[in-house]
Specification:
Two copies of one chain form a homodimer. Chain A is of the alpha+beta class. The first copy, chain A, contains eight helices and eight strands; from the N terminus they run ααββββββαββααααα. Chain A folds into two domains: about 140 residues, Sandwich (Jelly Rolls); about 50 residues. In chain A, the strands form two sheets. Chain A has a four-stranded antiparallel sheet with strand order 1-8-3-6. In chain A, helix 6 crosses helix 7. Chain A is globular and about 55 Å long. At the A-B interface, helix 3 and helix 5 of A face helix 3 and helix 5 of B. Chain B binds a DNA duplex through helix 8.
Chain lengths: ~200, ~200
DNA sequence: CGCATTTCTTAATCTACATCATCTTTCCCG
DNA sequence: CGGGAAAGATGATGTAGATTAAGAAATGCG
Protein backbone atom coordinates (compact mmCIF):
# COMPACT_ATOMS: atom_id res chain seq x y z
CA UNK A 1 0.00 0.00 0.00
CA UNK A 2 1.47 3.34 -0.98
CA UNK A 3 -0.87 4.97 1.53
CA UNK A 4 1.17 3.54 4.39
CA UNK A 5 3.82 6.24 4.03
CA UNK A 6 1.11 8.88 4.32
CA UNK A 7 -0.57 7.24 7.32
CA UNK A 8 2.82 7.06 9.00
CA UNK A 9 3.37 10.73 8.29
CA UNK A 10 0.01 11.65 9.80
CA UNK A 11 0.46 9.47 12.85
CA UNK A 12 3.59 11.41 13.76
CA UNK A 13 1.26 14.18 14.88
CA UNK A 14 -2.20 12.73 15.56
CA UNK A 15 -3.54 9.28 16.43
CA UNK A 16 -6.23 7.82 14.19
CA UNK A 17 -8.47 4.82 14.89
CA UNK A 18 -9.37 2.62 11.95
CA UNK A 19 -12.72 4.34 11.28
CA UNK A 20 -10.94 7.69 11.06
CA UNK A 21 -8.35 6.20 8.76
CA UNK A 22 -11.12 5.00 6.48
CA UNK A 23 -12.66 8.45 6.30
CA UNK A 24 -9.29 10.02 5.60
CA UNK A 25 -8.48 7.56 2.83
CA UNK A 26 -11.86 8.13 1.20
CA UNK A 27 -10.91 11.77 0.62
CA UNK A 28 -7.63 10.97 -1.09
CA UNK A 29 -6.81 10.44 -4.71
CA UNK A 30 -3.64 8.84 -6.04
CA UNK A 31 -2.02 10.65 -8.92
CA UNK A 32 0.79 9.75 -11.27
CA UNK A 33 2.87 12.70 -12.44
CA UNK A 34 5.24 12.41 -15.39
CA UNK A 35 8.73 13.87 -15.38
CA UNK A 36 8.63 17.58 -16.35
CA UNK A 37 4.88 17.73 -15.83
CA UNK A 38 3.58 20.79 -13.94
CA UNK A 39 0.87 20.35 -11.35
CA UNK A 40 0.72 24.06 -10.47
CA UNK A 41 1.63 27.23 -12.37
CA UNK A 42 2.29 30.64 -10.87
CA UNK A 43 -0.76 32.88 -11.10
CA UNK A 44 -3.10 29.96 -10.51
CA UNK A 45 -5.01 29.27 -7.33
CA UNK A 46 -3.63 26.26 -5.50
CA UNK A 47 -6.43 23.70 -5.06
CA UNK A 48 -4.51 20.74 -3.66
CA UNK A 49 -2.06 19.52 -1.10
CA UNK A 50 0.20 16.89 -2.61
CA UNK A 51 1.95 14.11 -0.70
CA UNK A 52 4.76 12.36 -2.55
CA UNK A 53 5.20 8.61 -2.19
CA UNK A 54 7.75 8.05 -4.94
CA UNK A 55 9.86 10.29 -7.18
CA UNK A 56 10.35 13.99 -6.47
CA UNK A 57 8.66 17.34 -7.04
CA UNK A 58 10.07 20.83 -6.78
CA UNK A 59 8.43 24.19 -6.00
CA UNK A 60 10.03 27.20 -7.64
CA UNK A 61 9.45 30.78 -8.76
CA UNK A 62 10.72 32.58 -11.83
CA UNK A 63 12.13 36.08 -11.32
CA UNK A 64 11.91 39.02 -13.71
CA UNK A 65 15.16 37.94 -15.43
CA UNK A 66 13.68 34.53 -16.10
CA UNK A 67 15.84 32.83 -13.48
CA UNK A 68 14.29 29.99 -11.51
CA UNK A 69 14.57 29.82 -7.73
CA UNK A 70 13.77 26.53 -6.05
CA UNK A 71 12.00 27.10 -2.74
CA UNK A 72 11.34 23.49 -1.80
CA UNK A 73 11.69 19.89 -2.85
CA UNK A 74 9.25 17.09 -2.10
CA UNK A 75 10.86 13.64 -2.03
CA UNK A 76 8.84 10.66 -0.74
CA UNK A 77 7.24 11.40 2.62
CA UNK A 78 6.91 15.16 2.03
CA UNK A 79 3.94 17.43 1.40
CA UNK A 80 4.07 20.23 -1.12
CA UNK A 81 1.72 23.10 -2.01
CA UNK A 82 1.76 26.87 -2.42
CA UNK A 83 0.81 27.38 1.22
CA UNK A 84 -0.13 31.00 0.76
CA UNK A 85 -2.35 30.36 -2.22
CA UNK A 86 -3.83 27.23 -0.68
CA UNK A 87 -4.86 29.08 2.48
CA UNK A 88 -6.01 32.32 0.91
CA UNK A 89 -7.35 30.86 -2.36
CA UNK A 90 -5.73 33.75 -4.19
CA UNK A 91 -3.28 33.44 -7.11
CA UNK A 92 0.12 32.22 -5.96
CA UNK A 93 3.70 32.61 -7.13
CA UNK A 94 4.82 28.99 -7.04
CA UNK A 95 5.30 26.51 -9.87
CA UNK A 96 5.30 22.85 -8.92
CA UNK A 97 6.92 20.42 -11.34
CA UNK A 98 7.98 16.78 -11.31
CA UNK A 99 11.75 16.28 -11.53
CA UNK A 100 11.14 12.63 -12.37
CA UNK A 101 8.16 10.30 -12.76
CA UNK A 102 6.38 10.65 -9.44
CA UNK A 103 3.64 8.89 -7.49
CA UNK A 104 1.60 11.11 -5.24
CA UNK A 105 -1.56 11.36 -3.21
CA UNK A 106 -3.80 14.37 -3.64
CA UNK A 107 -5.94 15.95 -0.97
CA UNK A 108 -8.04 18.68 -2.53
CA UNK A 109 -8.77 21.87 -0.60
CA UNK A 110 -12.46 20.96 -0.74
CA UNK A 111 -11.89 17.51 0.72
CA UNK A 112 -9.58 18.99 3.33
CA UNK A 113 -12.45 21.18 4.57
CA UNK A 114 -14.79 18.16 4.62
CA UNK A 115 -12.18 16.20 6.50
CA UNK A 116 -12.05 18.94 9.16
CA UNK A 117 -15.77 18.50 9.73
CA UNK A 118 -15.71 14.73 9.91
CA UNK A 119 -12.45 14.30 11.82
CA UNK A 120 -11.66 17.58 13.58
CA UNK A 121 -8.29 16.41 14.83
CA UNK A 122 -7.02 16.91 11.27
CA UNK A 123 -7.20 20.61 11.99
CA UNK A 124 -4.33 20.02 14.37
CA UNK A 125 -2.41 18.07 11.79
CA UNK A 126 -2.64 20.71 9.09
CA UNK A 127 -2.05 23.50 11.58
CA UNK A 128 1.26 21.83 12.38
CA UNK A 129 2.14 21.56 8.70
CA UNK A 130 1.41 25.27 8.31
CA UNK A 131 3.56 26.10 11.34
CA UNK A 132 6.40 24.06 9.93
CA UNK A 133 6.24 25.91 6.66
CA UNK A 134 6.16 29.22 8.53
CA UNK A 135 9.22 28.38 10.59
CA UNK A 136 11.06 27.06 7.55
CA UNK A 137 10.42 30.29 5.66
CA UNK A 138 11.46 32.47 8.58
CA UNK A 139 14.63 30.48 9.02
CA UNK A 140 15.40 30.61 5.33
CA UNK A 141 15.24 34.40 5.27
CA UNK A 142 17.75 34.56 8.10
CA UNK A 143 19.97 31.89 6.57
CA UNK A 144 20.10 33.68 3.25
CA UNK A 145 21.12 36.89 4.99
CA UNK A 146 23.76 35.42 7.28
CA UNK A 147 25.22 32.20 5.88
CA UNK A 148 27.70 31.45 3.10
CA UNK A 149 26.74 29.26 0.15
CA UNK A 150 28.67 26.39 1.72
CA UNK A 151 26.72 26.66 4.97
CA UNK A 152 23.43 26.84 3.09
CA UNK A 153 24.40 23.71 1.16
CA UNK A 154 25.04 21.85 4.39
CA UNK A 155 21.55 22.85 5.56
CA UNK A 156 20.16 21.44 2.33
CA UNK A 157 22.04 18.20 3.01
CA UNK A 158 20.49 17.89 6.47
CA UNK A 159 17.01 18.73 5.23
CA UNK A 160 17.00 16.46 2.21
CA UNK A 161 19.63 13.74 2.85
CA UNK A 162 18.10 11.40 0.26
CA UNK A 163 18.39 13.97 -2.50
CA UNK A 164 22.09 14.79 -2.31
CA UNK A 165 23.36 12.35 -4.95
CA UNK A 166 20.02 11.96 -6.57
CA UNK A 167 19.17 15.36 -8.00
CA UNK A 168 20.67 17.33 -10.90
CA UNK A 169 23.23 19.65 -9.32
CA UNK A 170 21.68 22.67 -10.94
CA UNK A 171 18.50 22.08 -8.95
CA UNK A 172 20.45 21.99 -5.72
CA UNK A 173 22.41 25.07 -6.77
CA UNK A 174 19.15 26.90 -7.38
CA UNK A 175 17.85 25.91 -3.94
CA UNK A 176 21.10 27.00 -2.29
CA UNK A 177 20.97 30.26 -4.23
CA UNK A 178 24.10 30.10 -6.41
CA UNK A 179 24.86 29.48 -10.08
CA UNK A 180 25.48 25.90 -11.25
CA UNK A 181 29.06 26.89 -12.18
CA UNK A 182 29.84 28.19 -8.72
CA UNK A 183 28.13 25.23 -7.13
CA UNK A 184 30.27 22.80 -9.10
CA UNK A 185 33.45 24.62 -8.11
CA UNK A 186 32.34 24.81 -4.49
CA UNK A 187 31.66 21.08 -4.32
CA UNK A 188 35.01 20.12 -5.78
CA UNK A 189 36.73 22.43 -3.30
CA UNK A 190 34.80 20.89 -0.42
CA UNK A 191 35.97 17.46 -1.54
CA UNK A 192 39.56 18.68 -1.88
CA UNK A 193 39.51 20.17 1.63
CA UNK A 194 38.25 16.93 3.11
CA UNK A 195 40.92 14.82 1.36
CA UNK B 1 -8.68 58.04 21.02
CA UNK B 2 -5.59 56.10 20.06
CA UNK B 3 -7.84 53.07 19.51
CA UNK B 4 -9.26 54.66 16.39
CA UNK B 5 -6.21 53.70 14.34
CA UNK B 6 -6.69 50.09 15.41
CA UNK B 7 -10.43 50.07 14.71
CA UNK B 8 -9.69 51.50 11.27
CA UNK B 9 -7.15 48.78 10.68
CA UNK B 10 -9.64 46.07 11.65
CA UNK B 11 -12.47 47.54 9.59
CA UNK B 12 -10.35 47.20 6.46
CA UNK B 13 -11.08 43.47 6.67
CA UNK B 14 -14.21 42.91 8.78
CA UNK B 15 -17.22 45.04 9.73
CA UNK B 16 -17.99 45.46 13.43
CA UNK B 17 -21.15 46.81 15.03
CA UNK B 18 -20.75 48.86 18.19
CA UNK B 19 -21.40 45.93 20.55
CA UNK B 20 -18.64 43.96 18.85
CA UNK B 21 -16.33 46.95 19.07
CA UNK B 22 -16.98 47.12 22.80
CA UNK B 23 -16.08 43.46 23.25
CA UNK B 24 -12.95 43.88 21.19
CA UNK B 25 -11.81 46.94 23.14
CA UNK B 26 -12.38 45.18 26.43
CA UNK B 27 -9.72 42.63 25.50
CA UNK B 28 -7.08 45.24 24.70
CA UNK B 29 -4.46 46.82 26.85
CA UNK B 30 -2.52 49.97 26.02
CA UNK B 31 1.20 49.79 26.65
CA UNK B 32 3.93 52.38 26.65
CA UNK B 33 7.31 51.10 25.51
CA UNK B 34 10.50 53.07 26.10
CA UNK B 35 13.19 53.49 23.49
CA UNK B 36 15.55 50.47 23.51
CA UNK B 37 13.13 48.43 25.60
CA UNK B 38 12.57 44.82 24.49
CA UNK B 39 9.07 43.36 24.52
CA UNK B 40 10.18 39.95 23.24
CA UNK B 41 13.48 38.05 23.36
CA UNK B 42 14.50 35.15 21.17
CA UNK B 43 13.99 31.84 22.91
CA UNK B 44 10.86 33.09 24.63
CA UNK B 45 7.31 32.11 23.74
CA UNK B 46 5.45 34.97 22.12
CA UNK B 47 2.33 35.72 24.18
CA UNK B 48 1.08 38.89 22.50
CA UNK B 49 0.20 40.60 19.27
CA UNK B 50 1.25 44.23 19.39
CA UNK B 51 -0.36 47.04 17.41
CA UNK B 52 1.65 50.27 17.22
CA UNK B 53 -0.14 53.63 17.41
CA UNK B 54 2.90 55.87 17.81
CA UNK B 55 6.66 55.42 17.56
CA UNK B 56 8.25 52.36 16.00
CA UNK B 57 9.25 48.79 16.85
CA UNK B 58 11.56 46.41 15.03
CA UNK B 59 11.69 42.62 14.88
CA UNK B 60 15.15 41.13 14.39
CA UNK B 61 17.26 38.02 14.86
CA UNK B 62 20.91 37.71 15.87
CA UNK B 63 23.05 35.30 13.87
CA UNK B 64 25.92 33.14 15.14
CA UNK B 65 28.41 35.95 14.43
CA UNK B 66 26.38 38.33 16.57
CA UNK B 67 25.07 40.26 13.59
CA UNK B 68 21.51 41.56 13.78
CA UNK B 69 19.08 41.06 10.91
CA UNK B 70 15.92 43.15 10.89
CA UNK B 71 12.97 41.17 9.57
CA UNK B 72 10.24 43.74 10.05
CA UNK B 73 9.42 47.21 11.31
CA UNK B 74 6.17 48.28 12.97
CA UNK B 75 5.41 51.97 12.52
CA UNK B 76 1.96 53.31 13.53
CA UNK B 77 -0.85 51.22 12.04
CA UNK B 78 1.16 47.98 11.93
CA UNK B 79 0.98 44.74 13.90
CA UNK B 80 4.07 42.92 15.07
CA UNK B 81 4.68 39.52 16.69
CA UNK B 82 6.78 36.40 16.20
CA UNK B 83 4.06 34.77 14.11
CA UNK B 84 5.55 31.32 14.33
CA UNK B 85 5.96 31.41 18.09
CA UNK B 86 2.58 33.07 18.61
CA UNK B 87 0.77 30.37 16.64
CA UNK B 88 2.72 27.36 17.88
CA UNK B 89 3.42 28.64 21.41
CA UNK B 90 6.93 27.31 21.07
CA UNK B 91 10.15 29.33 21.60
CA UNK B 92 10.75 31.76 18.76
CA UNK B 93 13.76 33.37 17.14
CA UNK B 94 12.61 36.99 17.07
CA UNK B 95 13.59 39.91 19.28
CA UNK B 96 11.21 42.85 19.32
CA UNK B 97 12.59 46.20 20.48
CA UNK B 98 11.43 49.82 20.48
CA UNK B 99 13.50 52.08 18.22
CA UNK B 100 11.98 55.09 19.98
CA UNK B 101 9.41 55.73 22.71
CA UNK B 102 6.35 53.90 21.43
CA UNK B 103 2.63 53.71 22.19
CA UNK B 104 1.03 50.38 21.50
CA UNK B 105 -2.01 48.24 22.09
CA UNK B 106 -1.56 44.69 23.29
CA UNK B 107 -3.81 41.76 22.47
CA UNK B 108 -2.67 38.74 24.44
CA UNK B 109 -2.84 35.27 22.90
CA UNK B 110 -5.30 34.32 25.65
CA UNK B 111 -7.60 37.24 24.90
CA UNK B 112 -7.29 36.53 21.21
CA UNK B 113 -8.72 33.05 21.79
CA UNK B 114 -11.54 34.49 23.93
CA UNK B 115 -12.25 37.03 21.22
CA UNK B 116 -12.62 34.21 18.68
CA UNK B 117 -15.33 32.68 20.84
CA UNK B 118 -17.23 35.91 21.43
CA UNK B 119 -16.84 37.43 17.98
CA UNK B 120 -15.99 34.66 15.52
CA UNK B 121 -15.45 37.03 12.61
CA UNK B 122 -12.13 37.93 14.22
CA UNK B 123 -10.93 34.53 13.08
CA UNK B 124 -11.18 35.91 9.58
CA UNK B 125 -9.28 39.03 10.56
CA UNK B 126 -6.36 37.21 12.09
CA UNK B 127 -6.34 34.61 9.37
CA UNK B 128 -5.78 37.44 6.91
CA UNK B 129 -2.94 38.84 9.03
CA UNK B 130 -1.33 35.40 9.03
CA UNK B 131 -1.72 35.10 5.26
CA UNK B 132 -0.14 38.51 4.80
CA UNK B 133 2.84 37.50 6.88
CA UNK B 134 3.12 34.26 4.91
CA UNK B 135 3.11 36.02 1.57
CA UNK B 136 5.56 38.66 2.81
CA UNK B 137 7.98 35.96 3.94
CA UNK B 138 7.69 34.00 0.71
CA UNK B 139 8.26 37.15 -1.32
CA UNK B 140 11.21 38.14 0.81
CA UNK B 141 12.98 34.84 0.20
CA UNK B 142 12.62 35.31 -3.53
CA UNK B 143 13.64 38.98 -3.38
CA UNK B 144 16.78 38.18 -1.43
CA UNK B 145 17.73 35.55 -4.00
CA UNK B 146 17.04 37.62 -7.11
CA UNK B 147 17.29 41.35 -6.43
CA UNK B 148 20.19 43.74 -5.94
CA UNK B 149 20.56 45.78 -2.74
CA UNK B 150 19.24 48.82 -4.58
CA UNK B 151 16.09 47.00 -5.67
CA UNK B 152 15.55 45.66 -2.17
CA UNK B 153 15.90 49.18 -0.81
CA UNK B 154 13.21 50.42 -3.18
CA UNK B 155 10.92 47.66 -1.90
CA UNK B 156 11.60 48.85 1.63
CA UNK B 157 10.66 52.38 0.54
CA UNK B 158 7.32 51.22 -0.84
CA UNK B 159 6.55 49.10 2.17
CA UNK B 160 7.47 51.65 4.81
CA UNK B 161 7.24 55.10 3.16
CA UNK B 162 6.98 56.89 6.50
CA UNK B 163 10.21 55.40 7.78
CA UNK B 164 12.60 56.42 5.01
CA UNK B 165 13.94 59.64 6.55
CA UNK B 166 12.91 58.72 10.01
CA UNK B 167 14.97 55.70 10.94
CA UNK B 168 18.70 55.29 11.63
CA UNK B 169 20.27 54.24 8.33
CA UNK B 170 21.89 51.23 9.93
CA UNK B 171 18.45 49.81 10.72
CA UNK B 172 17.37 50.17 7.12
CA UNK B 173 20.68 48.69 5.96
CA UNK B 174 20.08 45.68 8.19
CA UNK B 175 16.57 45.22 6.78
CA UNK B 176 17.88 45.51 3.22
CA UNK B 177 20.65 43.04 4.05
CA UNK B 178 23.81 45.11 3.56
CA UNK B 179 26.40 46.73 5.83
CA UNK B 180 25.80 50.33 6.98
CA UNK B 181 28.95 51.39 5.08
CA UNK B 182 27.72 49.96 1.80
CA UNK B 183 24.26 51.36 2.37
CA UNK B 184 25.64 54.86 2.91
CA UNK B 185 27.68 54.61 -0.26
CA UNK B 186 24.74 53.22 -2.21
CA UNK B 187 22.42 56.03 -1.14
CA UNK B 188 24.87 58.78 -2.10
CA UNK B 189 25.29 57.12 -5.50
CA UNK B 190 21.53 56.91 -5.99
CA UNK B 191 21.29 60.64 -5.26
CA UNK B 192 24.17 61.40 -7.63
CA UNK B 193 22.52 59.39 -10.42
CA UNK B 194 19.23 61.25 -9.97
CA UNK B 195 20.94 64.68 -10.04
C1' DC C 1 21.85 1.33 -29.33
C1' DG C 2 23.13 5.78 -30.68
C1' DC C 3 22.51 10.51 -31.15
C1' DA C 4 20.91 14.94 -29.24
C1' DT C 5 20.20 17.42 -25.46
C1' DT C 6 21.11 18.40 -21.05
C1' DT C 7 24.32 18.55 -17.37
C1' DC C 8 28.92 19.14 -15.40
C1' DT C 9 33.64 20.91 -15.14
C1' DT C 10 37.26 24.14 -15.43
C1' DA C 11 39.36 28.59 -16.34
C1' DA C 12 39.57 33.74 -16.94
C1' DT C 13 37.60 37.77 -15.89
C1' DC C 14 34.35 40.82 -13.53
C1' DT C 15 31.40 42.98 -9.90
C1' DA C 16 28.58 43.69 -5.89
C1' DC C 17 29.29 43.99 -1.57
C1' DA C 18 32.33 43.33 2.87
C1' DT C 19 35.96 44.81 5.84
C1' DC C 20 38.93 47.91 8.04
C1' DA C 21 40.32 52.40 9.17
C1' DT C 22 39.63 57.20 9.98
C1' DC C 23 37.24 61.32 10.25
C1' DT C 24 32.91 64.16 10.75
C1' DT C 25 28.31 64.81 12.16
C1' DT C 26 24.41 64.07 14.83
C1' DC C 27 22.03 63.12 18.81
C1' DC C 28 20.69 62.13 23.43
C1' DC C 29 21.10 62.03 28.29
C1' DG C 30 22.86 63.99 32.64
C1' DC D 1 23.64 72.89 27.03
C1' DG D 2 27.76 70.40 26.81
C1' DG D 3 30.31 66.25 26.37
C1' DG D 4 30.34 61.43 25.07
C1' DA D 5 28.48 57.94 22.33
C1' DA D 6 26.31 56.56 18.43
C1' DA D 7 25.61 57.25 13.54
C1' DG D 8 27.18 58.50 9.07
C1' DA D 9 30.64 59.49 5.22
C1' DT D 10 34.45 58.22 2.61
C1' DG D 11 38.69 55.82 0.94
C1' DA D 12 41.58 51.59 0.23
C1' DT D 13 41.60 47.00 -0.17
C1' DG D 14 39.68 42.18 0.00
C1' DT D 15 36.48 38.37 -1.46
C1' DA D 16 32.32 35.52 -2.49
C1' DG D 17 30.06 34.55 -6.05
C1' DA D 18 28.50 35.95 -11.18
C1' DT D 19 29.39 35.81 -15.97
C1' DT D 20 31.14 34.08 -20.18
C1' DA D 21 33.08 30.57 -22.80
C1' DA D 22 34.19 26.06 -24.25
C1' DG D 23 34.99 21.30 -23.83
C1' DA D 24 33.72 16.65 -21.48
C1' DA D 25 30.46 13.64 -19.46
C1' DA D 26 26.09 11.86 -18.67
C1' DT D 27 21.44 10.85 -19.74
C1' DG D 28 17.05 10.11 -21.73
C1' DC D 29 14.52 9.22 -25.72
C1' DG D 30 13.47 7.62 -30.47
Amino acid sequence: MPFDLLLNNVSKYIHLDSAEKEIFLSFLQPKHIKRKQFILNDGEICKNSVFVTDGCLRGFTVDKNGIEHVLSFAPPGWWIADMYSLISQKPGILNIEALEDTESIILSKINQEKLYHEVPKFERFFRILTENSLVANQQRIVDNMSLTAEERYSIFCKRYPTLIDHLPQKQIASYVGVTPEFFSRMRSEMIRKRA
